Amino acid sequence: MLLPALPHDQAAAYQLASSYLAGPHRGLEARMSTLFWLSDEAWSAIEPCLPKNQPGARRVDDRRVISGIVHVLKAGCRWKDCPREYGPHTTIYNRFNRWSRRRLWVEILEALVESGVLMHATAIDSTYVKAHRSAHGGKGGRRPKPSAHLAADRLPKSMF
Hints:
The protein is mainly alpha-helical. It contains seven helices and no strands.
């Protein structure tokens, strides 16, 4: 069964999803509930920070794209695996990449903190373990020496 493409406006997407609740398309409602969407409060804080009047092709809705970027970052999936409801994965990746180079994400996060949507906190988590290239296991390494009384009972390995 083919579903129609979601409209660009998020409110219209929610209306479309709710209209399918009564019909045989219940899968769309479950899919929409697992996706991340920016709240109205967060969007009102972010919108003034976004670039306007950019040259090029018609822009995909920024709210959808930002929701897609947050979804990819939260889920840890590849950009290519981003759900279609957010728009083309190339657009989502390119927008993230361009805005990162412009340091626009710093402005967006500061706007969210100022509006009270987010708390200002920093967390760093990393693991670094350096291992030798031959430390993957297998033969080699130290072998335990037999105790003295067991070694005395054995025959020598060589006569020389």
